[in-house]
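My main concern about presentation is that the manuscript never shows what a single data entry looks like. In essence, backbone conformation is discretised, so a fold becomes a row of integers matching the chain in length. An entry of this sort, consisting of the sequence and the corresponding backbone structure tokens, reads as follows:
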Amino acid sequence: MDHDASSKAKSKSQPAKSMAETAKPKSAVVKAPVNAAKNPKPNQFYHDNKARVFVRGITGEYNLKEELTRLRSVPRVRKAKEINFVDGPQAYSRHYVEPKDGITQLFHFHLEEYAPGGKSQKHGHVNEAAFYILDGNGYEIHDGVRYDWKAGDIAIVHNNCVHQHFNASDTKPARALVLKTKPMYLFMNMLFQKTVEKRSEELPPGATGFEVREEEEDFNHPKEGY
């Protein structure tokens, strides 16, 4: 058999690569552009991500020595300025820590910013959540009941209620720092959660020209000192 014939025979005997081997891996987090308020695009919302990691897998030998070594090597401080907001144009989210980051397993910590006149998605889940209001004023609707809030308040989302968050101002944004134990509940197979109304892709009337506040500033101390 000559060289060309031998090469052809070898190529026929080799199985073709599967789609899984040739396909490029998709990112686990979908990033919406910062200027989403100007040009919102469908199917880019964080909650629409079909590859979201709710609970991180842990594998290894019984003593989990490798996992413990990995955890001890992970940085304990995350720079907010290195984490971009996603979603918009009515509600934006900056996800500081969640299980996929490899640091925590039992809680999810994020910052919400509501554009003037903006609102969140309407949904329900088994886990509780606490919203510390950093600035602005607005209200919640929990199972049809309205609860008003302003900067300095803490809004509590209790278990199993259908809820939605609203910015009451048509001229100023509002911010809330959110801590929730969703990963822990899902880890225990308490899986029920459902979206009733998705985040709107429409720009609210009062938010024309609004851009989410990406900058992180130190508001704890007076600029002129003490």
